[in-house]
Amino acid sequence: MWNQLDGLTGLLSQKSYLNRTLNLQPEDKMLIVLDLDNFKYINDTYGHQAGDQCLKVIAECLKKAYSRYGNCYRIGGDEFCVLFRKPEKEKYCREKFYWIIEKQKNRCICSQVPHTAVP
Fold it and tell me: Catalytic site residue 78?
């Protein structure tokens, strides 16, 4: 089975995710799901180009933090997930993700939207 990429973010697509979950492998040990809070606000206030830029930045950060230990997917408009192979590395990757996001927040309007982080 081949993987398809999401056209906007370059992450694996929802179809790839669905195909993979139909045939889960023993190495698929953890599912991490991310949903962006208040994303509609970005599109409504700053326009879809700004929203797309935020999605690209977030996808890039997700890939940098998690791809070494899992497969990163965009599964919906503002929803992402990682099928993670190394649960013992989750805390390390999460902290790396937050660190990368913090460094990249000037690249997108997302930093101006109220949000909550869930550990």
Answer: yes
